[in-house]
Design a protein that fits this description.
Layout lengths: L8 H10 L4 H19 L8 H15 L13 E5 L26 H8 L3 E6 L27 H8 L5 E6 L5 H7 L2 E3 L20 E6 L2 H11 L20 E5 L8 H16 L4 E5 L4 H19 L1 H7 L5 H11 L3 H25 L3 E2 L21
Parallel strand pairs: 1-2, 1-3, 6-7, 6-8
Antiparallel strand pairs: 3-5, 4-5
Helix pairs in contact: 2-3, 5-6, 9-11, 9-12
Length: 386
Amino acid sequence: MDSLPSQSLPALSEVLRSGRLPLMDYLTQVEERFERGEPAVLAFVPEDGRFTRLRREAAVLLEQYPEPEERPPLFGVPVGVKDIFQVKGFLTRAGSRLPPELLQGTEADSVRRLRQAGALILGKTVSTEFAYFAPGPTRNPHNPAHTPGGSSSGSAAAVGAGLCPLALGTQTIGSIVRPAAFCGVVGFKPSYERIPRSGVIPLSESLDHVGFFTADVDGAALVASLLCQEWRAGMGGWGDEVRARPVLGVPEGPYLEKASAEGLAHFRETCGRLADAGYEVKPVAAMADFQEIVARHQTIVAAEAARFHAGWFARYEELYHPKTAELIRRGQAVSEAELAGARAGRQKLRHELEAVMGRAGLGLWLSPAAPGPAPTGLDSTGDPVM
């Protein structure tokens, strides 16, 4: 599908703020695009009167900022929000059949920041149930027979289909980078808590990250500057110290062996293009105990999900999808000592990877987003192992 409009998010923001593209005219374009594209993609949670509401909110925004030079950076930009985020005026359902009144809360800090930057909420985007593996109805915007990935399926597909230029998502295992890759968009997952998690229903509180999707890197840089705490201008948001081209490390060994033949061939081709562009791409042995790393991660996710859902699951077990119920039951069997050990193992892995980077002189790790292309079918969101 073609995107609308064709310019990057910074360019769109500039023409909306200046008034060269009148906001109400733009919303008409967005509505026309939405009516054509959304039925095929099913990226959004249904909402009656969506564009009547949006025009009402846009009128308030125009009244609040009549002078173009005073308009905030995302003035009038429509945003999709994954349906585990609390958004004032919207029900949070989290892809679940549980009674909605159980799930409501105070608006997420990330949503509040986007509103303060002038963004309009286009709507809630489809999430897998409680951001785990049980998929919703969303299709891949490039081929509806294939998964868009999960758990931020609706957000990635919405941006990939050109329904909105920005959407919020979360990642616990691979829920931003995998759907971004499958849907052909930029997925940005910053470091833990760079974007606050408040107002987001957790899956695993130790591992959940808030991030977002845009159509291009320039758009991601703009949004990161608004959402990430302690952001500084410069590559990666960390300032002048990383302006030089970083040495890129490729984690050779059991981790990379999880990629499919097609996925690995594409990854090697990408490494070659970066080397041709002047980057040093350095193969480095890493994560020899990758199976144990995966097991630890799965232990943390299951145990923390079980603890968060304990009360709801005791009352509404039959309303949970079988995949989510299996996760919670598995987590119930994890002792506090086992959970503490898994968390300690995560910290140990961080230190080990930092030490490897120091010895090899690496600035960044370069790795695949998924084992290979988006799989056929909608019963699975794909393997998050990468």
